[in-house]
Amino acid sequence: MRFHRHACITRDGGLTHERRRIVNAIPTVYDVAERSGVSIATVSRVYRSPDSVRAATRERVLAAASELGYVPSGNARGLASRSTGVLGLCFPDYSDPDTVGAEDDDAAMLYSDQIIRGMERAARRHGYALLIAASLAGGPESLVAQVAGRVDGFAVMARTVPTEELEAISRRRPVVMLAGPRAQDPSLDHLDHVEVANEDGQYELTRHLVHDHGLRRLAYVGLVDDSPDVEARFRGFRRACVEAGVEAGVEASVAPALRMPMMTQAEGARAARLLCEGSGERPEAFVFANDQMAVGALQELERRGLRVPDDVVVTGFDGIPLSRMVRPALTTVRQPMVRMGEEAVDLLVQRLSGRPPQEPVSLMLPVSVARRASCGCEETTVLPTVV
Amino acid sequence: MRFHRHACITRDGGLTHERRRIVNAIPTVYDVAERSGVSIATVSRVYRSPDSVRAATRERVLAAASELGYVPSGNARGLASRSTGVLGLCFPDYSDPDTVGAEDDDAAMLYSDQIIRGMERAARRHGYALLIAASLAGGPESLVAQVAGRVDGFAVMARTVPTEELEAISRRRPVVMLAGPRAQDPSLDHLDHVEVANEDGQYELTRHLVHDHGLRRLAYVGLVDDSPDVEARFRGFRRACVEAGVEAGVEASVAPALRMPMMTQAEGARAARLLCEGSGERPEAFVFANDQMAVGALQELERRGLRVPDDVVVTGFDGIPLSRMVRPALTTVRQPMVRMGEEAVDLLVQRLSGRPPQEPVSLMLPVSVARRASCGCEETTVLPTVV
DNA sequence: GTGAAAGCGCTAACAG
DNA sequence: CTGTTAGCGCTTTCAC
User: Fold this and answer.
1) What SMART domains does the record point to (chains A, B) (predicted)?
2) B61: number of Cβ within 10 Å
């Protein structure tokens, strides 16, 4: 038989509560119940379904709770009700030993920041809080496992959680994958998935360069081997080139030297240098797989006295705020990251709502090409019209 | 007597586990224990203190856990161990009905973003995850209460949580206040506190304008009534003015019209308009209480054909990324927001470490004045050297 | 090194 | 509308 507080009083002469008060311990339902002269069930009801309690009783309980400084234990609640009211997000650990405290690091994190923002906003709308953690080394006691064990639903950015761990987690709770390709692995093909139209976006942008600006020699920079997103972008680039009959440029563009390992501004600058000093003719356009690199290239080109877009066209991908701020403003493909976070939450909430479980959902969010000055579509102004 | 799983087996003919497996329910310690032929205590030990279990046993347990897809329940853990491994943050709800989806909203949130980033990073270092929630309407079932009941420690941005609620929370768990003034309220004076040197920063900046640039007519914009941070900045501004003997300018600057309710770009533009069209002589410098407004003013001034800094000097406060991107780059006071988040976590972790409880700590983080083009200290370049 | 058993604080039937 | 009671899944003494 469990010794409830009531039993304790009989058992140890009622000292329990005295001691509690003296050491200023954390008040529980039992304390509130006793102080307001009701049962713990009623205290619970006051919080869970206030309308099911008579107004006078409710007042009394609330008063006692307030006097005691009572805050319900989320753990006990979660354990008893089998739900936490918390959604989780696991994102890549961007902390780069080389860039501790550097601004570049800041920019790199914008991607996760936006997703966090979107998820937080949507979660709030549904009454959920958001638990976030960067993925670190795995293992039984990893932060990821910690988080996974405390949430009702879990969003995971691509390649941040090992397949096996993810499989276990998804057995417990709904999981949605963010970015990356739809999991091919059969053990994960039941997961919902949200991605952006990487290939189509890069295709549209490239087509714009080839078709509208008449460019023929394009170089693509940023084919990181293990990033499916970048792979998809490259496919889009290639498709547009092939359609326009500019294959040669394509082949030249995937020289190993241009597989940037980090996709940082520094790497973008390096790529621009290589492209300018290369043996063959300089490409007419540098097509970067992200904005970071493109911005780095912009700087390198300025250093070399080359004008953008007159001497060479530069484009990025992502549509980070910075892309609009640099001069010339960067032509790029805008990804709706905030919306991605929101969609992820909506998907999770839907699964949690207990409606008839449906087939795994895979959303592909549309992107939009922002035609700005760096491809020659917009005048270069001195002061950006922000807002 | 509690019916443990063992008892259940006797009780219902061992169906419990069968059913569990069939409905693919969430595996628990009991399942892992049974499958690996040990007691639940041992399963627990494998996770909590692996070294206290014989290697062979450990392997067996881990294997079973993996086959079952076992993930420990954070709730049960937290309840039993009285700690969650999670820190919380409550920040203001910036969502403005007027700016849904607008870019301005984005910029406004940068402040919280940075703090989130700092806290996440520091929390991770200490093995904690971060639970975040914007403050909404209070009440017993508010998100804030939800969060407070699930964390080991709680950081709260100024004026996001009602005093009474905060008092209750701080009785349970360590709380650190971010920004704002040190709580004057005696019920909250035991809280740790982290702020930045608002007054000194604005003083330095103003002194720079008066002393180094010889400006005499300064207008201050942004005295929101209930923001202690802005109040402090204004005090710094006034002190510098008084010291330099330019009181008149000060008085004029606090006209009610210039008490901006929102501190947005739009408001900054409006303030610039008022200042330009005002009856008296136009001030030589517009000193804004944040970067947002200053950027708005920059745009309004360009619209009116006024050159910055030649015709009028403009300064901001915060040092958001945008301040460096606009042309002319904004002279401003940089606040170390990321560091603020990190300090908050360090403070919480220290309190949680169980060391001899010390006096409440109040940190005032130093700021630095970024002298850029908008006050005439730096050349206006076309392409910002980002990085 | 391992097991048995007592809760952690709350929710959710189920009675009344 | 309110009280009783049996757990939720795990950690943690205390024995062996």
Assistant:
1) HTH_LACI
2) 27
